[in-house]
């Protein structure tokens, strides 16, 4: 982890809202993070916490309407991606920043061959001619571990299994040697054995290509395996951000803590009952004025209802947004003991 | 640890149609359509009381009049009051449109659901549909009219008898598309997990159909139904044209259009008004269909 | 640990579920999708049997066939001693209340056009003659039991979170006081934080009502948590079945081993150091399984014999059975030269069973 | 795919034979007499003789079998003869129309060109209008363009062609003086041969009105299908993927989404095509295009059973055939679908 | 000079389907073929006979007609050529006779040759027609557009059952007329060009003609009168106001002429009640419950305002009539007694006859209600008439249920259909009929007992009203024996009056003329209702 290097991607105070018939939905509230070169940032959080929306709004991929940017800046290569022109943004999409989507079954266009879909960004961003693009596409497929790559370029997505389709998605995202790769739950829809294959592949590729990666997932196990740093999101906000070991060892936010306890372990002692996080995720109808986790938090105090806790740095590299972060650290330590 | 959504007391389940209406109200097009539709209905139902002129009364001395106070929409070539004829024609047209559409939907849905749901019936029913699709309409209608006109007229009187005949004739020749659409839809819905769930409960097929399948195919049916009304109305006018329709002195909008065509240059209003109300009817029904489709789907309703 | 005193509730023997593939001019049957191919297991009253395996290996089909949502190709299914494998649907109807199902996708398994109350009362409509008020009372009771606010009775499924929807599904399954519930990946579509709620609920209900579960999942850690015994399926066959702890501590089949090693652990320390077995390639098509062991195309320890002969499920420990030639070899190594000859016989038995 | 097609064709044969029987019985049972057109001055005895000369004396099943034989054996022989100059038909009796006393196939082949030209162009123009309208309406859902499109297509759907046709005639041929270059002919000249630029222009001019009427009618329908299909596809995940690749909106919509949206629309259009062959009865009559549709109407009115039977049966064959083609096309367009 | 005036466009809204009138009796076919093939003699616009391919009209005076009325001899003009250049001879005339009377040919015009025992060629230019019995009206064969001469050479192989198979001959007959067929598209269009061998070297003035068919009367009228695309449009059955409005465009004019076509109401003298067993409905077994009463029939007639009907329906193309035979001049009865509408009188008549109005305004006597079914074919003007008449009848306490039947069914003789005009399963029905040429004998002879349509005759027969009176049959027989024109006239008028004003079996409404239209630039049009409208197309010219 090359500490202190200039971040490739720097997001500051990103806000995204959805204008719906039922009113505004504040899906992303003041999210900030930065991505250092070659780093893998894991993003976890429960469903609907705004992980996908955050990442998609970086590149303006949300349907608009209803989505709308409500503030913040996304610095990439010295430019604010929220302000650049449409054509500049398109040059970044797929060219400098690759994107892998969650569902490999539907994210590929069913009526075009896999080859065509891989070649598209190549021809667009790298200006390759058809032949060269095809060669490169075959290399890419080979790179992501699909055997007999040159022949399979002519196949359609439905002729691939889920795992292979996800590899194709990865190949598309990698096509133009992006500086940043954003992977939105790339393995959630896959079997564990296939997931293991993909994770192995990404580890490999990272070593080979050295790009910075944002990896969204639900699965703390995956995060533990591949992330350098972890960002925990809740209710459209970043509630905790820490290096991976630090986070698993010393989670500071009650949500992170609860999350770590809900998952049964494969090897550890088998508890009698699983810990749960009761209650509902917040409905993001209004701009947050209280801690979004308050209603489900076992440690909530009146203060939590009055003020949305700001993100602060607890120890270097470890940020939390909780009024009682310090106390809770101790509580947990005690509980562990 | 309370639920984020808490309410005070348990309300008993309320009628689902209220929810439908609540959603329906929010659809601007549908509300517009409803207003127009009811305006047309009001014209037809209340019209005769407000404008108490006999649509069949011939005042030959006052023929071919333009629009005036005595004859708001003018008169036709025999001096019949056009407004009264439009009102009277609407009654038949609307009745034929609605009844034929309903019957056609019934047939189409029945065949579609049966062939989609029961694999064994599928082949035969789809061949039947092909057969009807490939049958030429005109001879079929001629035949139906020849075979059934007299008995129907004897049993139900000339107007009711022909009404039944026309409604049945239109329905019998127009259910096939609905059947195909419904079948396709049923085939996919049949594979959905909630149908499997119903099976695991032990719900017999017939109740699976009525409880789960039918409500789910409502929206394609709704769409065909709205198109069906327009289709029925237009077919009725074509039938009148071929002399198979209602007695000639019995106005329908289709017939008014037909009758007005030769005078289009001389008295364009004779075509204009029936065309206007006809379009208004079809258009409003279409918008209502749009609204209903949204309103009937709780998923959209929630948005 | 199968307690011999406990009464078996569900006995599945030699279950086969083939889906015909037709082709050609006259739609002749040209083959089968062998979704479930000769599966046998027993579930004892009050216990939870886990069924794990990769996507497409036939878990759901197996679960559905056990409930007779499919007509099995062969084999017997005994529930409480009655063989339902060949019973007609009308005869089966009175048995339905005893066996229910909870589905994988809580969104898809609830009719989006029905209110929660009507969804939960559907089984009551079908099998009881309760009055409207009684039904409503029972619905409220069930909603309480699964932890749903009574106010939600006349809402629609889409207005709920995934976990709540799954509760609705569970309430529906419980409506008729079943003995046996097939849970077909009840938590796969749920958020981690909600999975725990549902699993806890299932456990609580089991405790309270003495339910028996067939718990289908591919989340091995959750299976470990909830199940008493675990069966591992691969390509339509059970490759290993054992009491939970035995399986997790000493998996014998290479597939089980690979599966367990592929599960990421939420612990960065072990994760970075762990040795994984990464399987190569994809699961073969169930319509055209390999000639020998189904796993031979991906098995890291594949031997020539694996490509020729299907291994049979053999007892390797108390309540622990696995189907692998390696184990034959182990036994062969200990049992002497005759062991090698026994293997083919095993297979024949397995095939005929 | 091939076996699928062959299977469907084999299945279609009994269906078609059955259809032909039903058609024949229908026509047989339908009221009406081929001699109705003749003046009342012709006495009954003469009429009876004429009827016998038409072959109406035979029982229906004999005539049915005769028709089947003629349709499936004799007529193809004649066709082969005319193409290869052979003489296999050996002057066998062909299917003769009651009205014209000439082989119905001659009439049909004489009329097919203008029907195909006019109705086909109408449909083509309709499609060409409908697709962009559908695409834009969907892409800008609920915009004024979309609302207007919906409105106009509903009008197009609800006003019968006999009204639109005459309105167009009144505007373009009556109100506009025929010295004006905007004046358009209302009577289709089927004898016009396109030889040079002038006759080409004349042909185009005389096609404008009927084609417009038909195009409006088809466009109204197809644009609706197009719109809903586009809407379905615009919400799909792969659209987002395409955008994430940095493709321009034009490429995303016109290549990725359109290609997918066209799949159901193409099949809808395929199913509309048999209608092109039978023509558009009302439009053909209004503009005197005198194609197959007008012939069918005339024959129906004149109770010309052999003509009606043959045309409707060909129509039935076309429907069955195009259903098959639609399915095959679906398979070709959508690589996910493989019939076997 | 031939061909100097270029091209002419004619539109018939009923498209010709064949150019051989012997295989089709349809007006459209007869008239279109009259441009190409011609009869020996024609009627002119006054109904007078004019020699066409012959020197003169054979009469008793010039000896062409035998004294015993048993033969007639036609002398063909010398030097006539077919359009293919071969000479026209008496052999062609004889052939035409053989062609039409072939027993298996199904000739549509065989009635024209009824009673003919032989047709012989005395020499190349002389044809003698012999009749079995004395024929007071021998001018039927080969006179008028219905029986033109066809070329022997062309049709020699088309006799009998082969007739329909000769498509090229049927579609392109070789003739002596002013035009010859270039291309015939059945039910669509005929392209014609001037006949190079036409007998008058200066004619026809048009080099080419397009004869377009199809559409409707409205469109045809519009094409001539409003858009100016066509020069001549046939039979504009349109409301007068519509025609006037079209004519106002100033591109052409409507012309009209009268013939023998009478729109009438036929009264059913037998009971059509559906409650009767099939086979007895509308047969003489059961007389009509109330229409057998002459007072009712008379009242029905009196209630009608014929002038108004004319005004509404036909304008210049119609005039009121009470008669069955409105022309030609010599035979016309010219009754006018019914012209004035007399509702009060009709009411009184019915009152006196004991028909009393019930609570619903409908008269009844002895439980028999004056409530009837009034049918006609589908046609806009007829439907208007129905509506009007229904209202007038309601004013005299007679209820009418209107019914319209598609013309193809109504006029089709299908014995299986309940809706034909012959079966007459209605109380009154309305249609128009006329007779060929100028002699009404055959027309008036229809109302004899043996011509009543009945199940045994497959419902064939022309006595639609089911009139059966020996006295009338006797008059028919007498007419068949009478050759003297004055006596024939008297008898015909008597018979006409018997059917109409005396007994009101037939309620004449409108003497329907023909309205056709031609453009202002088309000269020489003489509308002729006694023959083909296009009879003098050779004389047409372009107004410069
Ligand atoms: N098109 C939309 N219209 C309205 N609200 C939306 C839309 N898309 C997303 N949202 C809202 O934005 C919030 C964040 O959604 P997002 O998809 O980012 O969640 P996520 O963290 O990616 O969840 P998951 O793990 O399920 O993918 C949710 O509350 C969701 O309801
Ligand atoms: N109705 C059917 N017709 C034909 N094949 C079927 C049918 N249902 C399932 N299959 C096939 O049977 C095999 C097993 O399917 P099944 O759904 O049981 O797998 P699963 O283990 O439940 O997978 P998942 O984890 O994805 O739910 C699959 O290959 C599937 O394609
Ligand atoms: Mg997401
Ligand atoms: Mg499954
Ligand atoms: Ni537990």
Could you estimate the helical fraction of the residues of chain A in percent? 25-40%
Rounded to the nearest angstrom, the radius of gyration of chain A is: 21 Å
Largest pleated sheet of chain A: 8 strands, mixed
Using the coordinates shown, work out and report the CATH topology of the domain at 9-96 and 176-263 and 278-335 in chain A: Rossmann fold
Residues in helix, % of chain C: 25-40%
Whole-number average pLDDT of chain C? 82
Q: Classify the fold: give the CATH topology of chain C.
A: Rossmann fold
What's the layout of helices and strands?
The complex is a heteropentamer of chains A (337), B (303), C (353), D (340) and E (544).
Chain B: H1 16-26, H2 28-50, H3 82-117, H4 119-134, H5 137-172, H6 176-190, H7 193-201, H8 205-216, H9 218-241, H10 253-260, H11 269-296, H12 298-301
Helix pairs in contact in B: 1-11, 2-3, 2-11, 3-4, 3-5, 3-6, 3-9, 3-10, 5-9, 6-9, 7-8, 9-10, 9-11, 10-11
Chain C: E1 8-23, E2 28-44, E3 48-53, H1 59-66, E4 74-79, E5 82-83, H2 89-92, E6 99-102, H3 116-127, H4 132-145, H5 162-174, E7 180-184, H6 192-209, E8 212-216, H7 220-226, E9 229-234, E10 237-243, H8 244-249, H9 254-262, H10 268-273, E11 314-317, E12 320-322, H11 325-335, H12 338-352
Parallel strand pairs in C: 3-8, 3-9, 6-7, 7-8
Antiparallel strand pairs in C: 1-2, 1-4, 4-5, 9-10, 10-12, 11-12
Chain D: H1 2-29, H2 44-53, H3 60-84, H4 104-139, H5 144-158, H6 161-175, H7 197-234, H8 237-244, H9 249-278, H10 281-286, H11 292-301, H12 305-333
The structure holds adenosine-5'-triphosphate (2 copies), magnesium ion (MG) (2 copies) and nickel (II) ion.
Family (chain A): Belongs to the ABC transporter superfamily.
Keywords (chain A): ATP-binding, Cell membrane, Membrane, Nucleotide-binding, Transport
Main location (chain A): membrane
């Amino acid at each position: 982890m090359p500490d202190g290097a200039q971040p490739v991607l720097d997001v500051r105070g990103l806000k995204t809202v959805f204008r719906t018939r039922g009113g505004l939905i504040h899906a992303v509230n003041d999210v900030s993070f930065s991505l250092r070169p070659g780093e893998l940032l894991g993003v976890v959080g429960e469903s609907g916490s705004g992980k996908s929306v955050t990442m998609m709004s970086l590149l303006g991929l949300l349907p608009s309407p209803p989505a709308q940017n409500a503030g913040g800046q996304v610095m990439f290569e010295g430019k604010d991606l929220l302000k650049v022109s449409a054509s500049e943004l398109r040059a970044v999409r797929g060219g400098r920043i690759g994107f892998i989507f969650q569902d490999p079954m539907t994210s590929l266009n069913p009526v075009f061959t896999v080859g065509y879909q891989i070649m598209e960004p190549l021809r667009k961003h790298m200006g390759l001619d058809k032949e060269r693009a095809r060669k490169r596409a075959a290399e890419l497929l080979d790179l992501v571990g699909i055997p007999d790559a040159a022949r399979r370029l002519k196949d359609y997505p439905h002729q691939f299994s889920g795992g292979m389709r996800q590899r194709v998605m990865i190949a598309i995202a990698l096509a133009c040697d992006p500086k940043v790769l954003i992977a939105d739950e790339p393995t959630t829809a896959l079997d564990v054995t296939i997931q293991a294959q993909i994770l192995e592949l990404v580890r490999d590729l990272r070593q080979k290509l050295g790009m910075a990666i944002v990896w969204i997932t639900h699965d703390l196990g995956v995060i533990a395996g591949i992330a350098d740093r972890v960002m925990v999101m809740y209710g459209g906000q970043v509630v905790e951000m820490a290096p991976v070991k630090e986070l698993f060892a010393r989670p500071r936010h009650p949500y992170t803590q609860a999350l770590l306890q809900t998952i049964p372990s494969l090897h550890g002692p088998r508890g009698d009952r699983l810990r749960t996080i009761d209650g509902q995720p917040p409905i993001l109808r209004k701009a947050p004025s209280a801690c979004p986790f308050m209603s489900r938090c076992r440690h909530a105090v009146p203060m939590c209802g009055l003020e949305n806790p700001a993100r602060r740095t607890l120890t270097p590299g470890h940020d939390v947004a909780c009024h009682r972060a310090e106390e809770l650290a101790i509580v947990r330590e005690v509980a562990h003991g | 640890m309370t639920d984020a959504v808490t309410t005070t007391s348990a309300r008993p389940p309320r009628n689902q149609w209220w929810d439908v209406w609540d959603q329906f109200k929010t659809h601007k097009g549908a509300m517009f359509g409803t207003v127009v539709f009811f305006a047309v209905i009001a014209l037809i139902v209340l019209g005769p009381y407000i404008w108490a002129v006999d649509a069949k009364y011939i005042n030959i001395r006052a023929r071919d009049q333009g629009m005036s106070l005595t004859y708001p929409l003018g008169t036709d070539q025999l001096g019949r009051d056009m407004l009264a004829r439009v009102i009277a024609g609407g009654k038949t047209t609307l009745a034929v449109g609605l009844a034929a559409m309903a019957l056609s939907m019934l047939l189409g849905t029945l065949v579609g659901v049966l062939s989609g749901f029961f694999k064994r019936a599928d082949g035969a029913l789809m061949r039947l549909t092909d057969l009807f699709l490939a049958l030429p309409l005109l001879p079929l209608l001629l035949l139906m009219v020849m075979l059934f006109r007299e008995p129907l007229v004897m049993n139900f009187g000339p107007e009711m008898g022909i009404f039944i005949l026309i409604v049945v004739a239109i329905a019998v020749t127009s259910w096939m598309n609905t059947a195909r659409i419904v079948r396709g839809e049923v085939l996919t819905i049949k594979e959905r997990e909630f149908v499997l769930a119903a099976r695991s409960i032990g719900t017999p097929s017939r109740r699976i159909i009525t409880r789960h399948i039918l409500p789910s195919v409502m929206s394609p049916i709704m769409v065909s139904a709205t198109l069906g009304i327009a289709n029925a109305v237009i077919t009725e006018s074509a039938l009148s044209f071929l002399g198979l329709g209602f007695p000639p002195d019995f106005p329908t909008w289709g017939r008014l259009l037909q009758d007005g065509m030769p005078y289009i240059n001389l008295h364009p209003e004779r075509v204009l008004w029936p065309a206007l109300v006809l379009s208004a009817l079809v258009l409003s029904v279409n918008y209502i269909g749009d609204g209903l489709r949204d309103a009937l789907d709780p998923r959209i309703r929630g948005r | 640990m199968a307690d011999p005193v406990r009464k078996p509730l569900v006995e599945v023997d030699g279950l086969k579920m083939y889906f015909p593939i037709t082709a050609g001019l006259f739609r002749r049957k040209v083959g089968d999708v062998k979704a479930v191919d000769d599966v046998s297991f027993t579930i004892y009253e009050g216990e939870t049997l886990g069924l794990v395996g990769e996507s497409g290996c036939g878990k759901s089909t197996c679960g559905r066939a056990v409930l007779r949502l499919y007509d099995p190709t062969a084999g017997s299914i005994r529930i409480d001693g009655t063989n339902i494998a060949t019973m007609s649907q009308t005869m089966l109807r009175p048995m339905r209340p005893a066996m229910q199902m909870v589905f994988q996708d809580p969104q898809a398994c609830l009719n989006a056009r029905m209110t929660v109350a009507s969804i939960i009362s559907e089984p009551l409509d079908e099998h009881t003659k309760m009055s409207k008020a009684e039904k409503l009372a029972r619905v409220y009771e069930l909603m309480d039991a699964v932890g749903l606010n009574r106010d939600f009775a006349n809402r629609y499924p889409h207005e709920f979170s995934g976990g709540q929807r799954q509760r609705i599904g569970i309430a529906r399954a419980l409506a008729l006081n079943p003995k046996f519930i097939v849970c077909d990946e009840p938590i796969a579509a749920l958020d981690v934080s909600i999975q725990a709620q549902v699993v806890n609920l299932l456990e609580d209900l089991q405790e309270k009502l003495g339910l028996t579960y067939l718990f289908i999942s591919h989340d091995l850690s959750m299976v470990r948590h909830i199940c008493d015994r675990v069966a591992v399926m691969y390509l339509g066959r059970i490759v290993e079945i054992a009491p939970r702890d035995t399986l997790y501590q000493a998996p014998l089949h290479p597939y089980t081993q690979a599966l367990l090693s592929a599960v990421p652990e939420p612990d960065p320390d072990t994760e970075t150091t762990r040795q994984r077995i990464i399987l190569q390639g994809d699961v073969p098509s169930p319509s055209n399984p390999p000639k020998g062991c189904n796993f031979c195309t991906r098995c890291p320890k594949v031997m020539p014999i694996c490509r020729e002969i299907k291994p049979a499920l053999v007892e390797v420990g108390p309540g622990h059975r696995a189907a692998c030639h390696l184990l034959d070899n182990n036994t062969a190594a200990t049992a002497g030269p005759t062991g090698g000859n026994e293997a083919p016989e095993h297979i024949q038995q397995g095939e005929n069973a | 795919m091939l076996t699928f097609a062959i299977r469907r064709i084999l299945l279609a044969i009994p269906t078609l034979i059955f259809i032909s029987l039903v058609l024949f019985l229908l026509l047989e049972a339908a009221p009406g007499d081929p001699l109705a057109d003749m003046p009342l001055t012709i006495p009954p005895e003469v009429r009876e003789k004429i009827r016998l000369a038409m072959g109406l004396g035979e029982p229906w099943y004999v005539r049915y079998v005769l028709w089947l034989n003629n349709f499936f054996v004799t007529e193809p022989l004649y066709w082969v003869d005319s193409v290869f100059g052979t003489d296999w038909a050996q002057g066998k009796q062909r299917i003769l129309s009651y009205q014209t006393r000439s082989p119905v196939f001659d009439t049909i082949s004489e009329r097919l060109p203008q029907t195909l030209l006019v109705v086909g162009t109408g449909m083509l123009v309709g499609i060409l209008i409908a697709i962009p309208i559908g695409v834009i309406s969907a892409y800008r859902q609920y915009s004024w363009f979309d609302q207007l499109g919906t409105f106009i297509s509903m009008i197009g759907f609800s006003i019968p062609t006999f009204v639109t046709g005459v309105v167009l005639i009144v505007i373009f041929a009556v109100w506009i003086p025929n010295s004006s270059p905007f004046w358009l002919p209302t009577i289709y000249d089927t004898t016009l041969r396109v030889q040079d630029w002038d006759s080409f222009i004349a042909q185009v001019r005389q096609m404008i009105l009927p084609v417009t009427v038909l195009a409006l009618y088809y466009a109204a329908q197809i644009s609706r299908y197009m719109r809903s299909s586009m809407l379905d596809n615009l919400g799909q995940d792969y659209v987002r993927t395409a955008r994430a690749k940095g493709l321009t909106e034009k490429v995303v919509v016109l290549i990725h989404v359109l290609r997918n949206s066209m799949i159901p629309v193409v099949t809808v259009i395929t199913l509309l095509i048999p209608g092109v062959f039978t023509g558009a009865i009302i439009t053909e009559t209004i503009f005197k295009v005198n194609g197959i549709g007008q012939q069918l109407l005339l024959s129906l009115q004149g109770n010309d059973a052999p003509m009606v039977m043959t045309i409707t049966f060909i129509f039935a064959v076309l429907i069955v055939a195009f259903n098959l083609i639609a399915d095959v096309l679906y398979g070709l367009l959508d690589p996910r679908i493989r019939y076997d | 000079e031939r061909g100097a005036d270029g091209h002419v466009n004619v539109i018939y809204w009923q498209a010709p389907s064949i150019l051989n009138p012997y295989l089709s009796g349809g007006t459209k076919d007869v008239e279109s073929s009259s441009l190409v093939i011609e009869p020996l003699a024609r009627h002119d616009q006054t109904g007078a006979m004019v020699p066409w391919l012959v020197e003169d009209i054979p009469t008793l005076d010039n000896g062409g007609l035998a004294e015993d009325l048993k033969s007639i001899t036609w002398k063909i003009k010398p030097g006539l050529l077919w359009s293919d250049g071969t000479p026209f001879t008496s052999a062609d005339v004889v052939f035409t006779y053989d062609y039409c009377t072939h027993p298996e040919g199904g000739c549509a015009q065989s009635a024209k040759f009824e009673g003919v025992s032989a047709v012989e060629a005395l020499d190349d230019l002389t044809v003698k027609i012999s009749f079995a019995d004395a024929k007071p009206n021998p001018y039927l064969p080969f006179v008028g557009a219905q029986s033109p001469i066809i070329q022997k050479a062309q049709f020699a192989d088309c006799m009998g059952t082969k007739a329909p198979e000769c498509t090229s001959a049927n579609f392109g007959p070789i003739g002596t007329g002013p035009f010859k067929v270039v291309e015939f598209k059945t039910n669509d269009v005929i392209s014609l060009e001037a006949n190079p061998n036409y007998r008058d070297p200066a004619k026809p003035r048009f080099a080419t003609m397009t004869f377009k068919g199809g559409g409707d009367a409205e469109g045809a009228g519009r094409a001539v009168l409003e858009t100016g695309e066509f020069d001549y449009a046939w039979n504009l059955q349109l409301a007068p106001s519509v025609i006037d409005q079209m004519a106002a465009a100033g591109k052409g004019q409507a012309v009209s002429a009268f013939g023998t076509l009478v729109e009438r109401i036929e009264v059913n003298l037998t009971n059509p009640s559906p409650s009767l067993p099939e086979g007895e409905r509308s047969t003489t077994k059961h007389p009509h419950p109330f229409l057998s009463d002459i007072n009712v029939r008379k009242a029905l007639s009196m209630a009608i305002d014929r002038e108004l009907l004319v005004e509404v329906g036909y304008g210049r193309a119609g005039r009121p009539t009470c008669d069955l035979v409105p022309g030609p001049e010599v035979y016309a009865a010219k009754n006018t007694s019914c012209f004035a509408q007399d509702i009060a009188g009709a009411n009184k008549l019915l009152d006196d006859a004991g028909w009393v109005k019930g609570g619903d305004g409908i008269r009844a006597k002895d439980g028999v209600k004056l409530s009837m079914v009034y049918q006609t074919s589908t046609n806009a003007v007829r439907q208007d008439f129905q509506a009007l008449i229904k209202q007038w009848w309601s004013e005299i306490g007679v209820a009418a249920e209107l019914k319209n039947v598609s013309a193809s069914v109504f006029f089709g003789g299908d014995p299986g259909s309940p809706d034909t005009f012959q079966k007459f399963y209605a109380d009154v029905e309305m249609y128009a009929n006329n007779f060929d040429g100028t002699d009404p004998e055959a027309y008036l002879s229809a109302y004899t007992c043996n011509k009543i349509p009945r199940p045994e005759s497959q419902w064939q027969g022309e006595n639609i009203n089911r009139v059966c009176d020996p006295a009338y049959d006797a008059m028919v027989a007498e007419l068949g024996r009478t050759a003297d024109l004055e006596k024939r006239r008297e008898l015909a008028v008597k018979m006409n009056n018997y059917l109409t004003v005396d007994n009101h079996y037939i309620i004449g409404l409108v003497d329907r003329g023909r309205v056709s239209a031609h453009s202002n630039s088309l000269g020489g049009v003489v509308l002729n209702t006694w023959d083909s409208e296009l009879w003098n197309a050779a004389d047409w010219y372009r107004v410069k």
